[in-house]
Amino acid sequence: MKRHYILLAATFVYLSLYAQPVAFQACAHQWCSSAGINETSFLVEFAPDAQSPFTNVNMLLSSDNGCVLFSLPTTGNANALVRITPTKNGNPLSDFTIFDLQQNLERIQRHIDGTEPFTEIWQFLAADCNMDGAVTQADKTTLQGWQLGLETPASAWRFVPASFQFINPAQPLIPSPPGFLVKTLANLSSIETFRAVRLGHVITGNACAVSSTTSVPDFSASEAWPNPSNGSFSIPINLYSDADLQGEVFDANGRRIGLQAARHFSAGEGVYAFECSSTPGVYFWKITDAQGRYRAGKVAVK
């Protein structure tokens, strides 16, 4: 009998969790930094199960932090699927001069002929302008067509889920990484992030501010404590090397409401203390290191 009540209680908690509308944040950041990509469009589609087609839930436009907040339909099925597809329209070469275009075309050619192969994942992604999974002369032709206004790309940026694992970083276009993310409702994180590069921008400084984009994160972070909080909370962290970390807080609409000065932490265990709004609600925290690598999570204020 006792086991029966325990099972009923567990079932009630499970259904309560997934019978409520699920809110999450989707963000788009520049490949080599945590800078948000302004006016990124996010299409979020929903399927009640793997056998059902996806339907359009919503399309929202991000603010300058690159983030939007979505609320998914009520469902009792944790295996329901969510598909997130970011895009950013326009001509990626709109601010290019003839000199800029020539420099990028020459850099792509040096990769093609083997005199100066690309060394960073973002370079391959930015150079594959026709999105065919290879860097060839056809990409140079596509670039020139954009500059002359003969054609316009479907998206000025190429987006890749931050969680995507490249099988071979030396050949990141094989297989070609997806431009969308599909997860079950049970596996959906409070913040789903995409990294992106502007197509055609293959020279360091145009698409990225730093290199070493294939390195592993230098720190980890746990859940907020206390949670719920009264506006002040802490994040236990573990650093593999000394680092400067900066904290941000976003409200439920994805607007940044707090930015804390960077602090230096020594390698090992530590605690990052946040001061959040005292207004009740759900907030998102984010900790970023000097290389643009970050950890994020959710906290409730009561």
Which descriptors apply to this entry?
single chain, 302 residues, alpha+beta, Immunoglobulin-like, five-stranded antiparallel sheet, disordered N terminus
Strand content: 25-35%
- Within CATH, the superfamily of the largest domain carries the name Immunoglobulins
How far is the first residue's CA from the last residue's CA?
Answer: 36 Å
Q: Any low-confidence stretches, pLDDT <50, length ≥5?
A: 1-19, 209-216
Task: Walk me through the topology.
Elements: H1 2-18, E1 23-30, E2 41-47, E3 55-61, E4 67-71, E5 81-87, H2 98-112, H3 121-127, H4 137-148, E6 157-161, E7 181-184, E8 191-198, E9 219-221, E10 232-239, E11 243-250, E12 256-259, E13 263-265, E14 268-275, E15 281-289, E16 294-301
Parallel strand pairs: 1-8
Antiparallel strand pairs: 1-4, 2-3, 2-5, 5-7, 6-8, 9-10, 10-14, 11-12, 11-13, 11-15, 15-16
Task: Describe the fold and architecture.
By secondary structure, the protein is of the alpha+beta class. The chain folds into 2 domains: 2-90 and 156-198, Immunoglobulins (Immunoglobulin-like); 219-301, Immunoglobulin-like (Sandwich). 17% of the residues lie in helices and 34% in strands. It is built from 4 helices and 16 strands. The strands form 4 sheets. Strands 11, 12, 13, 15 and 16 form a 5-stranded antiparallel β-sheet that branches. Strands 4-1-8-6 form a 4-stranded mixed β-sheet. Strands 3-2-5-7 form a 4-stranded antiparallel β-sheet, with no helix packed on it. Helix 2 runs antiparallel to helix 4. The longest helix is centred in the N-terminal third of the chain and has 17 residues, at 2-18. It starts with a helix and ends with a strand. The model is unreliable at 1-19 and 209-216 (pLDDT under 50).
